[in-house]
Amino acid sequence: MYCLKMDKKITSKYFISNLHPAQTVAITESDVLRKPYRWRLSTLENTVGTFLLNIVLKKDTFPYLN
Length: 66
Fold this sequence. Notes:
The chain is of the alpha+beta class and 66 residues long. The chain has one domain (1-66). The protein is 23% helix and 6% strand. The longest helix is centred in the middle third of the chain and has 8 residues, at 35-42.
């Protein structure tokens, strides 16, 4: 993957993308993803996604913020 501002190649085992899956696949240069899969992603509608996390903390481990 190339960093656009620095024009340097960045390598990693994992990358996390905040783009629509079709856009993420479009900027990759990998032969791992087959053309039918890429095409299927490109036909998806761009919709809103959500993420919800419920956690319980032990008492007095985090200050109360009001």
